[in-house]
Structures are given as structure tokens and as C-alpha cells.
Write a structure and sequence with these properties.
Elements lengths: L1 E4 L2 H10 L6 E4 L6 H9 L3 E4 L9 H14 L5 E3 L2
């Protein structure tokens, strides 16, 4: 399962679920630093930051990010924080 996390609050909620579900987490660019991403990866968490900041009020930007996720994870269920 792939999760697109758009806010800090959403990130904390998803991290509570990571123990019970196999998740691939994509986070909005401003949520975590590069060092934090590296730490989570070192802990075995499948996490990637988006290449650009997604405006959580822009349906176009969210849809563009979703299309990118479909291309990278074509056979997986994708959840988007709303």
C-alpha cells in the first residue's frame, strides 16, 4: 500500500500504522529533512520525499502527484491524505 502524506499531522498518523501494515510512504517535500528521511530509511521504513512541495489546497497539484505515484506503483493501492 502506498500513502501520500501531505501534512505533518498526517505523517504522525501514518507512522502509527506502519507497524501493522506494509506501507510505502511518500511525504510532501516540506515535512521532513533529508537527514530525517535517511534515518527512517536506515530503520527499514520505505519512505520517499516528493520532488516538489504539493499545495494541499490545489487539486491539480495533488492529482499530478497521484499520477506520478500511479506510474511508480502501478499495481498498488494508493491512499492520499485529505
Amino acid at each position: 500500500m502506498v500513502v501520500l502524506v501531505l501534512t505533518q499531522k498526517g505523517f504522525h498518523e501514518v507512522m502509527k500504522l506502519r507497524e501493522s501494515a506494509h506501507l510505502t510512504i511518500w511525504v510532501n517535500q516540506h515535512i521532513l529533512s533529508k537527514d530525517e528521511i535517511a534515518e527512517y530509511k536506515n530503520d527499514g521504513i520505505h519512505i520517499t520525499d516528493c520532488a516538489y512541495d504539493i499545495d494541499i489546497n490545489s487539486e491539480d497539484q495533488i492529482n499530478n502527484a497521484l499520477q506520478m505515484l500511479y506510474q511508480n506503483h502501478p499495481d498498488e493501492v494508493i491512499f492520499v491524505e485529505r
